[in-house]
Amino acid sequence: RGSDKNTLGIRIAQASHNQSQSEFQSEVNKIIYDVQAAYWQLWLAGVVVHSYEEIVAQAELTLNKEQRRLELGDGSLTEVAQAQENYETLRVDLEQARQAKQAAETALKQYLGLDPSDRQSFDLVDEPVEEGFVPNLESGSSLARTTRPQLGAPPEMVRATELDLQRQRHGLEPNLSAVAGYSLTGLGTGLGNSLGNVISTDY
Fold this sequence. Notes:
The protein has 203 residues and is mainly alpha-helical. The chain is 67% helix and 8% strand. It has 4 helices and 2 strands, in the order H-H-H-H-E-E. Strands 1-2 form a two-stranded antiparallel ribbon. The radius of gyration is 38 Å and the shape is elongated. It starts with a helix and ends with a strand.
């Protein structure tokens, strides 16, 4: 049990270190993912706002058109009322979309450590890739093994637990020590001095 016992603590520390490194890198990867997700949520919210702005503008034109038709005697109150209701409904939807965009912008600022109360808006320059994408499972799997250490964290946890169990098991075993010693006194031996040697080994 000698050499195995002496290196057990080192191996436990190494396994724990590897696990800690994997957990740290996993946290970093999660932060990067959260920032990217928040960015695209804000981008999408901006697209929704822009779409509603165009729809509301068109609904306003339709309302004005129906009002003019009514003034010219070519329309009806029902058509004007329907156009008015549609316009007001879309205005509410636009306001809700703007609030959602503001919430997405606040979330992104929080992930980046910026002041959420800052009214300055982001200038989003990156846009989604619209081309077709065919994933390569082999290269994706290889990339995941190198960039996602959390995939290797469970084996490290198992290894650290196994080593800790070994350490505890060794602690329950009896401690057998063999001690041998001899001493020669140089008196009458011709050596001129005393020679002592003690050997102790822990098994």
